[in-house]
Amino acid sequence: MKFYNGIFIKRRISGKYCPLCGREMRKYRRTRRLELYKCSCGVIIDKHVASCYNAIIWTVNKYFPELLPRVKEKIRESIGKDPYTA
Ligand SMILES: [Zn+2]
What we know:
Layout: E1 26-30, E2 35-38, E3 44-46, H1 47-63, H2 68-81
Antiparallel strand pairs: 1-2, 2-3
Bound molecules: zinc ion.
Zinc ion binds next to loops.
């Protein structure tokens, strides 16, 4: 693999923690395609989706901390549009 003007970070990010409030979520429901977890703040989210959001939050927090409030706001909006939170 070649990288140009970039960095490569290998890190495990868990999907068991809520991307919005950071608390540990509990197993909620499992379908063929989704592993839904529920947070005590009301979020219901697939754990793989949650781990993607958590990876974004981790990266932004480390390298662009000033953007974190806006990124979290966008994630909140995006989760709000997800049918599994309805
Ligand atoms: Zn939460």
